[in-house]
Amino acid sequence: MTRLRDLVRREPKPGIELPAALERLVSVGIVSSDPLVVRRQRCVNVAAFATAANTLSHLLILSLYDFRGLLVVNVYNVLMIGASLAIPRLHRAGENIGAVALILMILVGNMFVVCALGRASSLHIYFTLGGATLLLIGVHQWRIFLVLFALFVIALLVALNLVPVDGFVLPQDRDLRELLTSHAMINTIMINAAMLFYALTALHRAEVELQDQHERSEALIETMMPQTIAERLKSGREPRIADRIEMLSVMFADLVGFTEAAHELPPEQVVEFLDSLVRACDALCEQHGVEKIKTIGDSYMAAAGFDGKSAGGAAAVGRLALALLEGIARQPPLGGRKLKLRIGIHCGPATAGVIGDMRFSYDIWGDAVNTASRMESYGEPDRIHVSAAFCKLAGDAFVFEERGETEIKGIGIARTYFLLGLPLL
To answer: What is the full DSSP assignment across 234-297?
Structure first.
């Protein structure tokens, strides 16, 4: 199982990284903090810069071909380049202002040059990019997209059926039209590729981030409750998770002398000690098949038998308790004092469920919990104090020493035992 600690401290998974200079360029003018808006506006910037680059290429070719004869188109190209580069400034005015302005500008501007140079120039091929406007507007604004897309379709139909073949600028120059046809087709392919590449790059990055967050949330839920309960909670089929367990084995382990040892110690040292100890306890719980319920100060609570296998649960908790005594002996001293554990175990009926809203948790209540807590508090350091019910349920799985009858608050006179270890083979 992936540890939440490892996920939290892990470096985020890298998506497709673009050069830093390019990232800054496509983020020009964006002030929104909404990641969805930022993603769309970056696509708008990519489209604006692609439009400026495309127009610049036309300006250079036409200027070299016949600057004076194509002056009206060249003036248009200069204005189009300046307008395209100004689009990022419009992001401050609204979420989709820049996108709509760019789309309408391309629509009107391209219709002008198609009329000027005629459909023989094939410049109306740029209207086929109308579908890409969805990347700029966003799926949630599908009504606006449909209107804009319809305008592109209408413009294409007008260009194909109503615009003169040769236009009004150098109408007899067939070589110019052939040059423009080749150039427009190549540019259309490149613009499509650039838009799709950036859109898919942004999508991949979003998917990687989403997967990373999903793994963290899954690990967080599974650290707060047993995996079976986590699955039930995530399914959403149960309005309230509440179970009755007829025979649950519950263990409490408490650090003896912790308060005195931790007195006046630096908080970093105290937390480091507790963190090391709890992590060791968590590992032992996982090893022995026992569910950690929670820590309460310097006390550790765990239980087994949720699956209905009461005898197996009792044996697992007993083995865990023995392992904890061995583990605490290997822990370093705290404040110069070697600490010991006092452990108590009881078996009995319990209620389990998920409670809370903002910080929900899985917890257990009932006789098994209350009596196990009493077993711990009335026990002895470095020993495992168990009830007669646990001794009976565990059977021959362990060796016990009878303690005798003990007056226990809230319970009365009870016969209890110390768990000494596993039987010799």
So the answer is: HH---SS-EEEEEEEEEEEEEEETHHHHHTT--HHHHHHHHHHHHHHHHHHHHHHT-EEEEEET
